[in-house]
Amino acid sequence: MGEIDLSVDLGRGLRLRSPVMVASGTFAYGFDAPAVDRTGLGAVVTKGTTLRPRHGNPPVRIAETPSGMLNAIGLQNPGVDHVVQAFAPVWARWDLPVIVNVAGDAVEDYVAIARRLDGVPGIAGLELNISCPNVEAGLQFGVDARLAGRLTQAVRQATSLPLMVKLTPNVTDLVAIARAIADAGADSLSAINTLVGMKIDVRHRRPVLENQVGGLSGPAIRPLAVRAVWEVASAVSIPVVGVGGIMTTEDALEFLLAGASAVQVGTANYVRPQAAREIRDGIATHLTEHGWSSLAALPLRAPAHV
Ligand SMILES: Cc1cc2nc3c(=O)[nH]c(=O)nc-3n(C[C@H](O)[C@H](O)[C@H](O)COP(=O)(O)O)c2cc1C
Prior knowledge:
Blueprint: E1 8-9, E2 15-16, E3 20-22, E4 43-45, E5 62-65, E6 68-71, H1 80-91, E7 98-102, H2 107-117, E8 125-129, E9 133-134, E10 139-140, H3 145-158, E11 163-167, H4 174-183, E12 188-191, E13 195-198, E14 200-201, E15 206-207, E16 213-217, H5 222-235, E17 240-243, H6 249-257, E18 262-265, H7 268-271, H8 275-290
Parallel strand pairs: 3-4, 3-18, 4-7, 7-8, 8-11, 11-12, 12-17, 17-18
Antiparallel strand pairs: 1-2, 5-6, 6-16, 9-10, 13-16, 14-15
The protein binds flavin mononucleotide (FMN).
């Protein structure tokens, strides 16, 4: 397996040695799972990071659902200054790219965070979480192609770091939004973030989550995520990273065949902290069994025929 080349290029110098990353919000800042062998990972994508620290929502913040989970963490994080001062110096010593997931309420927040992170050793790239409300328009950036494009362009001008923008599936026309983001200068797209869902405690006649609604993740959303990646990858020329319900090697291969250049593993980390590493090894085995030496050799069929 030593000769297999699993590396992927996500643009602007962001090269991963494996196509399997851990997804934002499911691996904190990379320090909480010391037993996990990081050498098998393509990258760590951090928890969503805001300008100032956030405590997040009060509990209950997580609920199990059939084939998945709902979460309403509310972007609990220590704020960008702490990330730069306390975390980045440690990441700079890791042999693994760390991509900081960025969240904000307004374009100015994202721009300020991007400026703060630009050129900081240990930070390999940004992933924009655009499923946050835009205060001015009262909309999420990610549900409006014009807003999503404007936000991407503003951040693009604020940083020379590789820029991945994460699509929210809670929209009617994902492709139009993906195109606007690609045209505005993003280096890659990730798809998808969670779907908004709700669970009700029938006995107590109240929502289970204190926030009432939360983001649905896990295997329940995988077919939606695969479809989203397939549509988006056919419409843009920048790399697309698939995320949503990946539990096994076969799940990850589905995304790669749908047109993804790489994948992120999220909810599976809660069940098997080594999931991303196992999936990486499974992809290597799959290539070996077929006699292929790199991901580029995967005979992807035209998406229309998948
Ligand atoms: C507990 C939890 C927290 C999350 N926090 C973030 C976040 O801060 N920023 C973000 O962009 N996505 C966040 N996500 C979404 C995941 O990164 C991923 O897009 C989603 O869960 C779908 O992948 P999965 O089914 O493999 O978990 C979070 C997901 C979970 C389960």
